[in-house]
Specification:
single chain; Rossmann fold; 6-stranded mixed β-sheet; 5-stranded mixed β-sheet; binds nicotinamide-adenine-dinucleotide
């Protein structure tokens, strides 16, 4: 898919919200532009002795509401425009769920599956070193995203701490528990997706047991979502990853799927139910939106739906629960992790999950209220809510100098 179009999608969503809420054109201009963007070259000594130079980015979209927060993506299709879009979505997301962060994102143009663990560690440490001027517990706090994981966060934390001369766990979130990670962080995004999916079903009067669910992407978010929704009683009829998909009208077992990751057939063609894209952006487009048979789409991935597909879903009466609400569980528990690290006092998993549930359920209602009041889609409502809160902070602080 054309990942470059994520930036166009992000801008078009912002403009749609700005029009509806009559946003001051000057403030809109500020919010259209990332605050800063860093491009770095990352020379890595490969295991065979050769040197390969990778390209990396770190973008701060907005810091009016607090330090910026956002994941780091390792993927061969990463571009500066994609990272800018993801950073902008982080800004709205943090504001939608009311946590005191701005938006950021990072990325490295690399296929991590092609690197050895030693190469991956050298790449990560050098990338972390190159973005050191931008990150820090009060500045910008990275986290995992597509292609990165808790081990990679541990290496970033160690690289930053080595430079400071003491341990700084609060510089990244999504870390292993042993070095200041939070209970519940691993499944937090998926858990958040589960809470908003259940809230949507309740709102639409759908029964959980009758719901047929299809998930695209079987990574951190997708596999977790399959597991948690299955536990709630939903029937998971289809799952796909980058290599293909499996489909079973009578339901798939998450345990079986985890051990059997090979693929056969297609996931399309089931009647009704819930579609959960949990892979990458630009998956639901004007080319396939007509063929989607789900009545509800819950965006676990960032930016899976293009604005053209959004229009088609709106006309067809398909409810889209947008990414900046649906997948905000990850950044919410990242916020909890940061708070725990700063206080060096750790919470139980039940405490984390319960606070997460409260935030997700409250945010769902907040977005729904705006959608009903203004008669707009859930995406425009969520963007209005996020943009409104960021604009208020920006205007209250005033413009420097
Ligand atoms: P991951 O790397 O763990 O998993 C990605 C999965 O998507 C893999 O199973 C991969 O095979 C699959 N995939 C990739 N391209 C595909 C394609 N074209 N068709 C089908 N499957 C495909 O990544 P993740 O952390 O699970 O992130 C997935 C999405 O969720 C991304 O959009 C990410 O930005 C978003 N997200 C992640 C978090 C988080 O906490 N990790 C938080 C919020 C949002």
């Amino acid at each position: 898919m054309n990942s470059g179009s994520a930036w166009d999608s992000a801008l078009s969503q912002l403009e749609e919200a700005a029009r509806t809420m009559d946003l001051d054109p000057g403030v809109l201009e500020v919010l259209r532009n990332p605050r800063r963007a860093l491009e770095v070259s990352i020379p890595v000594r490969m295991d065979d002795g050769s040197i390969v130079v990778y390209k990396g980015y770190r973008v701060h979209h907005n810091t009016s509401r607090g330090p910026s927060k956002g994941g780091i993506r390792y993927h061969p299709a990463v571009t500066l425009d994609e990272v800018k879009a993801l950073a902008m979505w982080m800004t709205w997301k943090c504001a939608v769920v009311g946590i005191p962060f701005g938006g950021a994102k990072g990325g490295v143009v690399v296929d991590p599956r092609k690197l050895s663990q030693a190469e991956l560690q050298r790449l990560t440490r050098r990338y972390a070193y190159e973005i050191l001027p931008l990150i820090g517990p009060e500045r910008d706090i990275p986290a995992p995203d597509l292609g990165t994981n808790e081990q990679i966060m541990a290496w970033i934390m160690d690289t930053y701490s080595t430079r400071e001369g003491y341990s700084v766990p609060s510089v990244v979130t999504g870390k292993p528990l042993a070095i200041g990670g939070s209970a519940g962080r691993g499944l937090a995004t998926a858990r958040g997706v589960m809470y908003v999916t259940l809230a949507t079903m309740k709102h639409l009067g759908m029964s959980v047991e009758d719901a047929r669910v299809v998930v695209q992407g079987f990574g951190n978010v997708g596999a977790g979502t399959v597991e948690l929704l299955h536990q709630q009683g939903c029937v998971i009829v289809g799952v796909s990853d980058v290599q293909g998909g499996v489909y079973s009208p009578s339901g798939l077992s998450p345990q079986g799927l985890r051990t059997h990751e090979t693929a056969a057939g297609r996931v399309m063609g089931y009647e009704g139910g819930v579609l959960i894209p949990a892979a990458i952006e630009g998956q639901l487009t004007e080319r396939n939106a007509d063929r989607v048979k789900a009545t509800v789409i819950v965006e676990a991935a960032n930016g899976p739906t293009t604005p053209e597909a959004d229009e088609i879903f709106k006309d067809r009466g398909i409810l889209v629960v947008p990414d900046i609400l649906a997948n905000a569980g990850g950044v919410t528990v990242s916020y909890f992790e940061w708070v725990q690290d700063l206080q060096a006092y750790y919470w139980s998993e039940d405490e984390v999950n319960d606070r997460l549930r409260q935030i997700m359920e409250r945010s769902y209602v907040d977005v729904l209220e705006v959608a009903e009041e203004r008669k707009v889609t859930m995406r425009t409502a969520a963007t209005i809510l996020g943009v409104g809160r960021v604009a208020e902070a920006h205007v209250t602080r005033g413009l420097y100098p």
